[in-house]
Every structure is written in structure tokens, then in C-alpha cells.
């Protein structure tokens, strides 16, 4: 008999959710974590980055208060105080993910690295754990690119950037994806010089080009130097022998900084798991799974979170996806229901100011996917009363609509855009018609009215059509 009904490897967002639900259903669960409970999101990802951004946005608010007629002195950044705020946020959330809490749920928590011993057992802390089912939730880590000179200079990743004793004088950031952009604005608003070196033609390459156009000036206004389409040929120490890093660009050009942050993507944490011994197939993007997140090669194994590479979809590195995966696995693994993961209504948010939120397909993705009759509707915040009242009339809501008014995607560039994402996720996920949004009564004045106004535009031409006018003319003659 196996020792455990479920063994979970990794206590990040994905593994914790699976362990908690499985234990709640009365199963015998072991949870193995080699480092910190809570994984990346709590310790090196979402929580510290959003805490740092909150401090940065507060500093920016103080600096720009003059537009409201308020005279404030320029804010002084107390780096130790900022770090204490970041640490405090982690510490406040940590008990939810703690060993004590999970032991209290009846989970056997093992603090050691795990690896497969066979297709139905792992080893951790010198002990063998035979399992009926195993869920691999070992996450992903920052990609360290093969860049000449990198072994000879100091560099940072998301695991070290939140631990600096002093603010970086000039932070060079390799990569202008969500990590690069959030860290760029956070540090710039906290008084650091920042340069983003993006290898592709533009920053935030996955996001809607028009919305990124709207975001770029904000980052530049914060003092972020953005270099797009640049290839870093090598990195080296400064010629004067002082501290810092110099990025040498292809075709010449040198960009010097005090610190270098690598933010060029994520790689699944496969090494050390001995996946071949467990007969668990994996590729460079992660553990190969079917759409129910079950391993394609070992029926006892599932993969969740950043490490999962579901067929036809690929990995997605978001904490809300880790939770979505946990829900899928519980239904497929424990209730044996036929479930199928999809990302049709998936939201993602880059937490800059303004935030850039995308739910479902961008315009480019909808056209690329071959959707017929794609209509794009926009409502600028310059036409939104709340945005004007608050002195933030830049940004827009952009809706991507398919046949018969079906919402395929929504992009939002606005302060706190992420708070609006749920509405569009619900609409797309439940296949609600656009008329549901257009007919909704929303409180005035709110930013979310922009989406309703955009949706209304879809129906305006129909309302003003000759047929409608004829109908009204006929109706008015009725007694
Ligand atoms: C800077 C940054 C900001 C982010 N911000 C956001 C955000 O705002 N919103 C959002 O949705 N997502 C965000 N993300 C992404 C989010 O953090 C990840 O998608 C999420 O943490 C993935 O959870 P996971 O459980 O799959 O993996 P992880 O959180 O990485 O957890 C995996 C755990 O497995 C452990 N482990 C690995 N190998 C073994 C082994 N062999 N034995 C035992 N244990 C092992 C690791 O130590 C780790 O604790 C951010 C990421 C970063 C880096
Ligand atoms: N707010 C959020 O939800 C949030 C925040 C941070 C991270 N995340 C998750 O973590 C993932 C990883 O984030 P990321 O920003 O590291 O990766 P990313 O893959 O999203 O972006 C990496 C960027 O680096 C560029 N790049 C790649 N190689 C380069 C090179 N050699 N030189 C210069 N530029 C190069 C790419 O063109 C791309 O723009 C995200 O995709 C997301 O899933 C989410």
C-alpha cells in the first residue's frame, strides 16, 4: 500500500492549494518544500514586488500633488523604511502558508528537497514516500542567459533584488517584460536611475501595442530610460575598476550601471527532481501534461503552476493560474471528472501606474487566431468623468469583439486596471453577450463606466439605423 494518497512537491501557490484542498477532503497528504513555504509569490515575487510598487507609487503621488494645488516637499526615501514595509507585507501573509498551519490541517510537511525514486515513490529528507498520486509544483526560476562576461560581474534576479541594503544608484534591467517594467518603475519612483534594455522591438511584447504606446510615456516621465531592440553582446566590469556593471551592446555602445537585474523570462525548476526515474516526461518549457494537467507519461503524476506545460497551451507563470490549476487537479485527480484547462478568460496585469490589464485575447491575438468579423471598441479615459476629476485622463478600455457581439478580449490601461479585470473574465468565461455590459447599471462616476461606454458603441449604429427609425416612426403613430 502507498504511504500517502497524495504527495505534493513544492509549497508555492500551486502546491499549497492542492495540499490544502486534498487534506480538507480527508486524504493522507505529504507536502515537501526544500526552501521557503509560500514559494516565489510570497517571498520573491508578487508580494514583495507589489509592496515595493506601493511605496514607489506613494512617492510619485507626493511628487505630483502640485497638480491638485497642494504644495508638498519632495519625498525623502528612507530605504530601510521601504524595506521594512516590504518585509512587513511578507511577514503578515506568511502565516497563511506556514508549516504550522499546514500541519494543523493534518498535512505531513517535510522540509527537504524531493526527487523521484521510482514511478510511484519519491525521496525527501532521507525518507521514502510511496504515493498513490503525486503533484509536482516545483515552480520556475529566473532564466540566466548565456551572456559573455556574466560570470565575472555581480547580477541580481527576483530572488535577490528585494534584499539590497542600499538603493541601486543606477539599475540596469535586462528584459522589458512584466518583471522588468514593474521593477523599473518601482526603483525609478524611489529615486534610482533605471535603464531597461529590451532585446525585442518593443517592451511588453505580449501586450496590446496600442496600450503599451500609452504606458511608455508614463515610464519615461518617471525617469526610466527605455532602450528597445538592443542586443547586449557582453557584460563587463567598469574600466576604472570601480563597482558596477557595463553592458556592451552589439554594434558598439556601452551602458554603465551600478547593478544589473536579469528579467528575461522564467525556466521550470526541473533539475534535481530525477523526472526520468519517475517516468515523468518533460521538455524545456516544463512537465508535459494533458489538458487535465496529468502527466503524459505517468498516470500517477500531475503537474501544476509554473512548472506545468499543458499540451496546446504552454506554461503560464501567474499565481491565479496556480490556483486555477489546483482546482482542475482536484476535479481530475480526486473526483475523476473530465476537465479541460483553457485560458480563454485568463486575466493578466502588469502593476505599473497606470496598470496594464489584459483579459482574454488582444486584438492581434484575435486576428491571428482567425476569428471572423473582429470589431475593436475603444473608450478613452479622456472621456471618463472620474478619470478627469482625478486628473488622470490618460489610458483607455479596448474591447475585442467577435461574431454576434461575443467578447473575445479586453485590454485596460488605467489606474488600478486590475480591479476591473474580474468583470471581463466573468463575461468571457460565461460567454455573456456584450449587451450585458452595455445594459449594466454602474455607479457614477467610476472608471469602469469606460468599458460600458465602449460596449454601448457596438449597438449605437444599430440603434440609429434606418430600420430602427422606421420602427420608431411606426410606433409613435400607435394610440
Ligand atoms: C518578481 C515577480 C513578480 C510576480 N508578480 C506576480 C503577480 O503580481 N501576479 C501573479 O499572478 N504572478 C506573479 N508572479 C508569478 C508568480 O509568482 C508565480 O506564477 C507563482 O509563484 C508560481 O507558483 P508555483 O507554486 O508554481 O511555483 P513557486 O512559487 O516557485 O513554488 C515552487 C516551490 O517548489 C519548491 N521546490 C522546487 N523544487 C523542489 C524540490 N525538488 N523539492 C522540494 N521543493 C521544491 C521551491 O522551493 C518553491 O518554494 C511574479 C513572479 C515574479 C518572479
Ligand atoms: N504582474 C504579474 O502578473 C507578473 C509580474 C512579474 C512576473 N510575472 C510572471 O513572470 C513571468 C516572467 O516575467 P519576465 O518579465 O521575466 O519574463 P517575460 O518572458 O515575460 O519577459 C522577458 C522580456 O525579456 C526580453 N528578453 C529576453 N532575452 C533578452 C535579452 N537577452 N536581452 C534583452 N531582453 C531580453 C524579452 O523580449 C521579453 O520582453 C511573466 O511572463 C509572468 O507570467 C507576472
Automatic annotation (TrEMBL):
Top-level taxon in the UniProt lineage: Bacteria
Family statement drawn from the similarity comment of this UniProt entry: Belongs to the class-I pyridine nucleotide-disulfide oxidoreductase family.
Bilayer-crossing regions: 6-27
Organism (species): Craurococcus roseus
UniProt KW keywords: Disulfide bond, FAD, Flavoprotein, Membrane, NADP, Oxidoreductase, Redox-active center, Transmembrane, Transmembrane helix
UniProt cross-references to PANTHER family, sorted A to Z: MERCURIC REDUCTASE
Domain annotation Pyridine nucleotide-disulphide oxidoreductase dimerisation: ranges: 347-454
The name this protein goes by in its record: FAD-dependent oxidoreductase
InterPro entries attached to this UniProt entry: FAD/NAD-bd_sf, FAD/NAD-binding_dom, FAD/NAD-linked_Rdtase_dimer_sf, Pyr_nuc-diS_OxRdtase, Pyr_nucl-diS_OxRdtase_dimer, Pyr_OxRdtase_I_AS
FAD/NAD(P)-binding domain segment(s): 4-324
Needed cofactors: FAD
Amino acid at each position: 500500500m502507498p504511504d500517502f494518497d497524495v504527495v505534493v512537491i513544492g509549497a508555492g501557490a500551486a502546491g499549497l492549494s492542492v495540499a490544502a484542498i486534498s487534506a480538507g477532503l480527508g486524504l493522507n497528504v505529504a507536502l515537501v518544500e526544500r526552501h521557503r513555504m509560500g514559494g516565489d509569490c510570497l517571498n520573491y515575487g508578487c508580494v514583495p514586488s507589489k509592496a515595493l510598487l506601493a511605496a514607489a507609487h506613494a512617492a510619485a503621488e507626493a511628487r505630483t500633488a502640485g497638480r491638485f494645488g497642494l504644495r508638498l516637499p519632495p519625498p525623502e526615501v528612507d530605504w530601510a523604511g521601504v524595506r521594512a514595509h516590504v518585509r512587513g507585507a511578507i511577514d503578515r501573509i506568511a502565516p497563511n502558508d506556514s508549516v504550522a498551519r499546514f500541519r494543523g490541517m493534518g498535512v505531513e510537511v517535510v522540509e527537504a528537497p524531493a526527487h523521484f525514486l521510482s514511478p510511484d515513490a519519491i525521496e525527501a529528507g532521507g525518507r521514502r514516500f510511496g504515493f498513490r498520486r503525486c503533484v509536482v509544483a516545483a515552480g520556475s526560476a529566473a532564466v540566466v542567459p548565456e551572456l559573455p562576461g556574466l560570470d565575472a560581474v555581480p547580477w541580481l534576479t527576483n530572488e535577490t533584488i528585494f534584499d539590497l541594503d542600499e538603493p541601486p544608484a543606477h539599475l540596469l534591467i535586462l528584459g522589458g517584460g512584466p518583471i522588468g517594467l514593474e521593477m523599473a518603475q518601482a526603483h525609478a519612483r524611489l529615486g534610482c536611475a533605471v535603464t531597461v534594455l529590451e532585446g525585442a522591438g518593443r517592451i511588453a511584447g505580449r501586450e496590446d501595442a496600442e496600450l503599451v504606446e500609452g504606458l511608455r510615456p508614463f515610464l519615461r516621465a518617471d525617469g526610466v530610460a527605455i532602450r528597445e531592440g538592443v542586443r547586449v553582446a557582453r557584460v563587463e566590469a567598469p574600466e576604472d575598476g570601480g563597482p558596477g556593471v557595463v553592458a556592451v551592446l552589439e554594434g558598439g555602445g556601452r551602458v554603465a550601471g551600478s547593478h544589473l537585474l536579469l528579467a528575461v523570462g522564467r525556466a521550470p525548476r526541473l533539475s534535481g527532481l530525477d523526472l526520468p526515474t519517475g517516468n515523468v516526461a518533460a521538455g524545456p518549457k516544463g512537465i508535459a501534461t494533458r489538458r487535465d494537467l496529468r502527466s503524459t507519461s505517468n498516470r500517477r503524476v500531475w503537474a501544476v503552476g509554473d512548472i506545468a506545460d499543458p499540451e496546446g497551451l504552454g506554461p503560464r507563470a501567474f499565481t491565479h493560474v496556480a490556483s486555477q490549476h489546483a482546482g482542475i487537479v482536484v476535479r481530475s485527480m480526486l473526483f475523476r471528472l473530465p476537465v479541460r484547462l483553457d485560458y480563454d478568460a485568463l486575466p493578466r496585469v502588469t502593476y505599473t501606474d497606470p496598470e496594464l490589464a489584459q483579459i482574454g485575447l488582444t486584438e492581434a491575438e484575435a486576428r491571428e487566431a482567425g476569428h471572423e468579423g473582429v470589431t475593436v471598441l475603444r473608450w478613452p479615459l479622456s472621456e471618463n468623468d472620474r478619470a478627469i476629476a482625478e486628473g488622470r485622463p490618460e489610458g483607455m478600455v479596448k474591447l475585442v469583439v467577435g461574431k454576434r457581439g461575443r467578447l473575445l478580449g479586453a485590454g485596460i490601461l488605467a489606474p488600478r486596471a486590475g480591479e476591473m479585470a474580474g468583470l471581463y473574465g466573468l463575461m468571457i468565461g460565461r460567454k455573456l453577450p456584450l449587451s450585458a455590459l452595455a445594459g449594466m447599471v454602474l455607479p457614477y462616476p467610476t472608471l469602469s463606466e469606460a468599458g460600458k461606454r465602449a460596449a454601448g458603441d457596438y449597438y449605437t449604429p444599430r440603434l440609429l439605423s434606418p430600420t430602427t427609425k422606421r420602427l420608431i416612426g411606426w410606433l409613435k403613430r400607435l394610440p
